[in-house]
Amino acid sequence: MADKQFKSLFDIIGPVMIGPSSSHTAGAVRIGNMARHIFKELPDSVNIYLFESFAETYKGHGTNLALLGGLLGMSPDDERIQDAMLLANEKGIDYKFIPLADKVEHPNTARFVMRKGNKKMSVTGVSIGGGNAQITQIDDYDLVIQNGVSTIVTYHKDVPGVIAKVSVLLNEYNINIASMKLWRKQRGKDASMVIEVDQVPDDFDVNLLLRCEHMKHIIYVQGDDHGFD
């Protein structure tokens, strides 16, 4: 049998967490936490749609508490996860858990539809095992954002020069690009970049990228379990 390669000790012993299942609790917390990073603030209301395995066991495994706790900014080992509903109520968040029978690509899938005033955003994530998670869709854009990896997502017009300008600006702040993936809906129309970076210095404001011509919107997801108070 071929030797199995592990990226870290985490892959062998699993995450430090609250709850019975790394996929249904720790991974779910990270989906919620990344959704919060992407939305950039607490929503006034959120519908959390649950698919397949999540839809079947979300109450028994505490997946509902984990997803909501992550949205509130908790990390997987936060003891407040068990009180996530109470804390969400105290913050005035209108939340609903909606299990669906739809078949999706991954069984541990959740979709957050968040609203605050006129702002609305849909974020879909999957728990991929071992307490790890990925964001697979933001609104109508299919993409992949890994938990634990600092990631910059751009929305821009598909024209020549945008990628070069972004790369030059990141280089000015000594930000190393680990990987870059590109999407576009149609030539010359809306496009997106998902840029994984090694680090982002404290003096770098990711919104500086909005100065690049044809740039419309920027999302930054920190590469750790970052809490919000």
TrEMBL record:
InterPro entries reported for this sequence: ACT-like_dom_sf (IPR045865), ACT_dom (IPR002912), ASB_dom_sf (IPR029009), Fe-S_L-Ser (IPR051318), Fe-S_L-Ser_bsu (IPR004643), Ser_deHydtase_bsu (IPR005131)
Cofactor(s), names only, from the UniProt record: [4Fe-4S] cluster
Membership in a protein family: Belongs to the iron-sulfur dependent L-serine dehydratase family.
Superkingdom assignment: Bacteria
GO MF, one example: metal ion binding
TM annotation in the entry: none
Domain ACT span(s) in chain numbering: 151-226
PROSITE patterns with a match to the protein in the record: ACT
Protein's recorded name: L-serine deaminase
